[in-house]
Amino acid sequence: MSTPRNEPARTGGVREHNLALVLRQVAQGSRTATPPSRADIAAATGLTRATVSSLVDVLVGAGLVEELAPVARTRAGRPATGLALRADAVSGVGLEVNVDYLAVCVVDLTGAVRHRRVVDGDQRTRTPATALRRVARLGARAIAGERATGRAVAGVTIALPGLVQAPHGPLRLAPNLGWRDVDVVGLLTREPTLAGLPVTIDNEADLAALAELYAGGAGGSTSFVHVSGEVGIGAGIVLDGRLYRGRHGWSGEIGHVAVRPDGPACRCGAGGCLEQYAGQEAILRAAGVPADAATSMGGSSAVDRIAGLARAGHPEVRAALAGAGAALGLVVAGAVNLLDVDTVVLGGIYAPLAEWIGPAVAAEVDRRVLGAPWAPVEVRASSVGPDAAVLGAARSVVQGVLDDPASWLTAA
Known about the structure:
alpha/beta, Arc Repressor Mutant, subunit A, Nucleotidyltransferase, domain 5, five-stranded mixed beta sheet
């Protein structure tokens, strides 16, 4: 049986485990008004004060943790020295390729955004090699900027919309990009700056769910389904604070669950998929709005127009949003019955449209989830924003340092 994450290890890998345990306590305390002291960490973890002090010294020496000015406590004794993450220690870089944009995001060890850039453009008109070369160059410029300030870069994670074999690939299928069996890491690391760093890939909906978790969104829930509505629809599943990936890492392809088996053809090759009823193109078509579908990051004009018409009471638009919400709720209710989560988060284009889509989703969930009378399921808009996937990508890199500082110290 494995050792619980928040208890000290007693056998094999003790120092590595406990080093991570102490660093997580510092990270959690950094988000509070009273940063923890060595004594606080010892009390919270069950480690001895001498062990905690030794581990803190290692983390301070590595530049991951800093000691703050002593603060007088209400109880008797010497003032306590608080501990916090060092924001200037290390950075994580996130990249994203989506239908109509490329993006880069850099965060520091505390998760604060240091750099963010989005470049518009239809990636469906480019080969995978061309698109990945362009996004790699965005990443290289961001990395150069970090290194110029003296920060180390822990690695790069790229978010992609499709079936991804995380962490190293390949990308098996991205229907909305028209990509199949692409060696993403191999193409990215042709860029010399990225070649010397750990580079991983992940599904954009999974990373958006992680961004929500890291930000403390989802109403504080640690078990939720995060539905990312864009040109396609994906979902990230978080259970007890951990991302659930499935056997091959392909969980969450909710956009390709059938609403009606005899429904319209989908880009995936099947028919009647949720994307054909609740995807952005389907909403535009049902609303009679003449606009090209665009993601919430790459081009918000279509979403802004839909929201504006709905706010003005346009009957066809409101009916289209209610219909999309009902289809989405039908599929989400099935997921809730299967997974027993307590929260559904609406992300991507669904977040700014939640005022009109959310009630229909909630109504289907209330009606179809067997346990709803005893454990109501909350349906809420994402708290993160349209850059959730690329932000989650960057945050996942620094989270890797927080979860396993011993490996980082060995590699640094």
